[in-house]
Specification:
The protein has ten helices and no strands. Helix 5 packs antiparallel against helix 6, helix 5 runs parallel beside helix 8 and helix 9 runs antiparallel to helix 10. It is mainly alpha-helical. It folds into two domains: 63 residues, Homeodomain-like (Arc Repressor Mutant, subunit A), CATH 1.10.10; 135 residues.
Length: 209
């Protein structure tokens, strides 16, 4: 009786891996096209063809071109949720957020070193991208709040969990925003890293949580 369940579990895991691989391939091709042609000159059909997927498949993963600019949202969500699992509000949570946020900054600097984004500032600050980014932030914050409520033995009130969730996500979101804008202005990545790191530490040492 156990063998069919194992096979079903393996099949589900394989499907999930294939979906993740497909998503990453699409995002990688989109990044390449944005860099080579510029965001405004790349169509969704161009991305689908480059990634060797159908347009419906592309839209299933990324509803708009703006979602492709923010393609790391699922990985970022899992990274933030991982910081708060099993932790109670207080100094332990602060340090977990600090470690997670600074590691995210380091990984961001390493992964984008020497790369031009192809994303114009007008797009980064445009209404369409900002609307998608706010939606993603809210989704992540709600997930973090749910994780905080289910973590530990002490029950955290819903309002408290929501405040914590949105505050924690804001730390990561601002890191991504400020680093992205800084790179568009061709600021030195090392200077950006020092500047953002200092701001995060100052915030967590003083007024946050």
């Amino acid at each position: 009786m156990s063998q069919p369940r194992t096979q079903t579990h393996d099949a589900g895991g394989l499907r999930a891996r294939k979906k993740l691989e497909c998503r990453r391939r699409i995002a990688a091709e989109a990044e390449r096209l944005f860099r080579e042609r510029g965001f405004e000159h790349v169509r969704m059909i161009d991305i689908a063809q480059a990634a060797d997927v159908s347009e419906p498949t592309l839209y299933n993963y990324f509803p708009t071109k703006e979602h492709l600019v923010l393609d790391m949202d699922q990985e970022l969500e899992e990274r933030i949720v991982g910081c708060v699992k099993g932790l109670k509000p207080g100094s332990e949570l602060v340090e977990a957020v600090r470690t997670g946020a600074l590691n995210f900054l380091d990984d961001l600097c390493q992964s984008s070193a020497g790369k031009a984004t192809g994303i114009p500032e007008s797009t980064w600050h445009g209404e369409a991208l900002q609307r998608v980014w706010l939606q993603l932030n809210l989704r992540m914050a709600n997930r973090v709040a749910e994780t905080i409520q289910s973590a530990g033995k002490a029950k955290v009130p819903r309002t408290t969990a929501l405040i914590l969730g949105r505050s924690i996500v804001a730390v990561f979101a601002v890191i991504l925003e400020e680093y992205g804008v800084g790179r568009m202005h061709r600021k030195d990545p090392r200077h950006l890293r020092r500047e953002i790191r200092k701001a995060v530490n100052h915030l967590l040492d003083g007024v946050f949580l």
